[in-house]
Specification:
Number of strands: 8
Low-confidence stretches: 1-8
Number of domains: 2
Number of helices: 9
Radius of gyration: 19 Å
Largest sheet: 8 strands, antiparallel
Helix content: 40-55%
Strand order of the largest sheet: 7-6-5-4-1-3-2-8
Length: 275
């Protein structure tokens, strides 16, 4: 993963959010991130979100922390996992978020040196439903020293494993590209959709429509719904507060989404009454 001498590390950073769901399911939750993104299909059961903004240039947070917060926020309340891929001049890595479970990630230095625990890859394979033999062998190779594999090669190897799971990234969205080039490539692809913030009222109603059509629908009413809403509020408030203390926009969004889902659980019947 090379950069020009006059290109600062932050400018060299790029990021993708891979969601194991179609664009119709991903578009509404992505709005709640309140970030401009381009949404594209990336296979029969995959979508990719390409950020238009680059908050790691202005907020003082590294790209990996920003992407971890976004992936966590997207996965909260969704029945599908989210995989964040990120890179800068010094490192590259991935972070997997799935529901309320702890995120798992792995990092490689620019020269390809692995920095992480092998157990992370096993968790990664299990949560994405990858082949426990063939795919796991490929993932394990990515955690071993290899003087011929730099960071770009490591990320390419990871994408090769995901390709066997149905991922098909559109042309131009390869690892190592800076955010501006990724966004330009995404906008030029057929079927590209702009994800924009349209306000809380529209986002909340759209989120209710989306959730009703998933396996979470039966949990929107009755004692189970109230219990789930209370749990989401209990987890979301301290998470948002922690994000504020750390000045981490991604974690603030994750906590806010938990609070929103919890509040919706309590307000659902009243909000649906006029409909």
């Amino acid at each position: 993963m090379s950069t020009t001498p006059d290109e600062p590390p932050a400018e060299a950073a790029g990021a993708l959010l891979l969601c194991r769901a179609g664009p119709d399911a991903v578009g509404t939750p992505a709005q709640l991130l309140r970030e401009r993104m381009v949404l594209l299909r990336a296979g029969a059961e995959w979508s990719v979100l390409v950020p238009e903004g680059k908050p790691w240039l202005h907020g003082g947070e590294p790209v990996d922390r920003v992407l971890t917060g976004w992936a966590t926020a997207l996965a909260v309340g969704a029945p599908w996992p989210v995989l964040a891929l990120w890179w800068d001049a010094d490192r590259c890595g991935c972070t997997l978020a799935s529901g309320f479970r702890r995120t798992v990630g792995y990092v490689w230095l620019a020269n390809g040196t692995p920095v992480g625990e092998d157990e992370a890859m096993r968790t990664f394979a299990a949560r994405l439903g990858l082949d426990p033999v063939l795919d796991m062998e490929s993932l394990e190779r990515l955690t071993k020293p290899d003087t011929d594999a730099d960071a770009h090669a490591r990320m390419t190897g990871l994408l090769a494993v995901l390709t066997r799971a149905g991922l098909s990234l559109p042309a131009g969205l390869g690892p190592g590209e800076p955010a501006d080039r990724l966004c330009a490539a995404a906008r030029g692809r057929p079927g590209a959709e702009a994800v924009e913030w349209t306000g809380w009222r529209d986002a909340v109603r759209a989120e209710l429509d989306a959730v009703e059509n998933t396996t979470l629908g039966p949990w929107l009413r009755g004692p189970r719904a109230r219990a789930l809403a209370a749990a989401q509020l209990a987890a979301g408030l301290p998470l948002a507060a922690w994000g504020v203390r750390r000045r981490s926009g991604g974690w603030v969004v994750a906590g806010a989404l938990l609070v929103i889902h919890g509040a919706l659980g309590f307000a659902y019947e009243r909000m649906r009454a006029p409909d």
